[in-house]
Amino acid sequence: MADRVVATYSIVACDLDAGQWGVATQSKFLAVGSVVPWAEANVGAVATQSYANPSYGPDGLRLLRDGLSAEDTVARLTEADEGRDQRQLGIVDAQGRAATYTGSGCHAWAGGRTGPCFAAQGNILVSGETVDALAETFEATAGRPLVERLIDCLAAAQAAGGDKRGQQSAALLVMEKDAGYAGLSDTLVDLRVDDHARPIEELRRLYGIHEALFGRTPADQWVEIDEGLAVELRERLAGLGYDEEWPAAFVRWSGSENLEERVDGAERIDPVVLKALREAK
Fold first, then answer.
1. Once rounded to an integer, what is the mean pLDDT over residues 256-277?
2. Cα(196)–Cα(75) distance, rounded to whole angstroms?
3. Which of 105, 112, 168, 174 minimizes the number of CB atoms within 10 Å of its CB?
4. Are 121 and 255 in a shared domain?
5. What would the mean pLDDT of 195-206 be, rounded to a whole number?
6. What is the CATH number of the domain that holds 23?
7. Tens digits of residue pLDDT in 97-134
8. Residue 127 DSSP symbol
């Protein structure tokens, strides 16, 4: 049993206005993101932990897809599982209804809290204050992007005590219909820190990189490329070894820097891309 996902805390949540569902988790366990978080756009999110039953993820999403509520899905999954006394589970459904389950055999401290659009749970925690911090931080950050709220929830939970055994890995999964890479995926964010002394801090750092590469700057904040700026851009690109005609050099450079998702034609430039080019060496 030593290799099972035992000591973990997590939050499953949604932002109905943004059409996003997600999970954030941290554990003294290698690669917690490979087991705990499951989510599907317009369907719901599931966290399975404490001697985790991985089938709760796909099976839970299937039940939610079939129209069951979060509470009914928890009941259906646990009733069919002979190991339910050692399981812990959190679910939020397409309507923002939430449910959490902690089996009687989970190691103390273990428990959960629910509220509109979230379920927070944890086991082998220093105290219940860890789960309280997950819940209270989510409630206090209403109106901010779901991804940022979930990372803040993990940080607050860790500050409140966290996993009794310490830290090792963290993960963040957020789904939104057609919001992933090139508009061809529902995966808005899928980041994992598999083994790190401060996994939540590392997760936040990775999200910063993700935002720089794949974030969205409002169209009204893009910069028009006038003649003067075009000359500057061509000179900077040539200095970096991209000496093709404009805009071919710009397209090749942005692709090599993984910034192609922030490029849309050659008449305007995303200020994030402009800053990256000006700082490039």
1. 95
2. 35
3. 105
4. no
5. 98
6. 3.60.20.10
7. 999 999 999 999 999 999 999 999 999 999 999 999 99
8. -
Cα 12 from Cα 188, distance rounded (Å): 15
Q: What is the pLDDT of residue 7?
A: 76
The pLDDT of residue 182 is above 70: yes
Tokens standing for residue 39 = 């989510």
Could you tell me the two tokens for 29? 């366990």
With beta carbons less than 8 A apart as the criterion, state whether 76 and 67 touch.
no
Q: Cβ(119)–Cβ(44) under 8 Å?
A: no
- Closest Cα partner for 54 from 36, 71, 68, 78? 36
Number of residues that this document lists for the chain: 281
108's CB contacts (< 8 A; 6+ apart) are 124
On whether both 91 and 226 belong to a single domain, the answer is no
Cα torsion at 247, 250, 252, 258 (round to 10°)?
Answer: -140
Single pTM value for the model: 0.91
